Amino acid sequence: MIGSRKETLMKLNPVLDKDGLLRIGGRLSSAELNEDEKHPLIIPSSSHVATLLVRHFHEQSAHQGRHITEGAVRSAGFWIVGGKRLVSSLIHNCVTCRKLRGKMQFQKMADLPADRVTPEPPFTTVGLDVFGPWTIVTRRTRGGSARSKRWAVIFSCMTTRAVHIELIESMSTDSFINALRRFFAVRGPAKLLRSDRGTNFVGACKELGLDTDKSATGKFLQEKGCAWTFNPPHASHMGGSWERLIGVARRILEAMLTKNAQTNLSHEILSTFMAEVMAIINARPLVPVSTDPESPTVLTPAMLLTQKASSVSAPSGNFSQGQLYGKQWKRVQHLADTFWKRWKMEYLSSLQKRSKWTNNQPNVKEGDIVLLKDAQAHRNEWPMGLIVRTVPSGDNRVRKLKCGS
Fold first, then answer.
1. Where are the domains of the chain?
2. pLDDT over 50 (residue 124)
3. What global pTM score does this model have?
4. What is the CA radius of gyration of the chain?
5. Largest CB tally within 10 Å, which of 42, 272, 285, 372?
6. Are 228 and 193 in contact (CB under 8 A)?
7. Which DSSP string corresponds to 333-367?
8. How many angstroms separate the CA atoms of 330 and 320, rounded?
9. pLDDT tens across 216-266, in order?
């Protein structure tokens, strides 16, 4: 190591100036530059003076990157041996730079919850969200037409990935309960409801007053024997299974509205469009379409819901091909058994891989200072917070926490 440092200095041709300081002799003595640029002062990177110089010129250059900071140090007449590593280290630990350009904290992707991987009847466990609004014509008047808004509640089955959509007239508690009652009447009561406190649903929660302990919604759910689980705030990725389906529904509806641009949108027309959107989403393949001629059918949620075109009900029993021509209930059960076998072999195995967040990351700890991301504000305006409590998951990795100001 000593030999390597000596060789580095020899390449710089060091000389002593009149003050006894070590400077670079170099080969630029004939250049039209000032003395500091031709013969910079040599400073070892391990010295405290080098650290102070880099910090000073880093602030002078408005917290720019390594290249600009190192250029400012060199232009001032200082040659820091091993300066690249020192500059990179100081920029990495600079609080201002981390606030301006630091990456978001993440943890290794968690395992899927049990209700995503357990065969159950459709809509036993449901994720829901509210999206919209759309402006519709409610009635004709002498001056033109009266207009109002409509929203939609999407109910997504966590197991079969089927979708049910209900329109609501307002963001009130009564309107939401009516949509929930219609959903339970058509699809049957659910065992567990999941919803996201983040992004577009957090506003609906405030309007609906969704407190499962006190509100009318909570009383209604208690009567149905249904539990409600809320995801942590600002964690929309935990509801990604139904957030993605909202994007699909929006794209399908936009295509329908573009095709029918001349149609005055009414509640009846919007309700019809939503039913068609629901049918298109439920007819989507859950797994890549096979080119095998022995398996011509496509695995879709509609197979369970409509019991048409190789569709089914709930998993139970082993049935042979010959029983298809017997009683109708045996035919349905055979189709159900076929669906759930393919669901386990084809769909469930496709959930094994982690598409991102594949590596373990250090857990944040109580007492850490963090920057709280706010999608509605500029990064310079993001507030700082103190972690007051962490909530480790089953694998002892922290994915939920509580911050104080």
1. 2-101, 116-282, 302-351, 369-404
2. yes
3. 0.68
4. 32
5. 42
6. yes
7. HHHHHHHHHHIIIIIGGGGSS-SS--S--PPP-TT
8. 10
9. 665 666 666 777 778 877 777 788 888 889 989 999 988 888 877 666 788
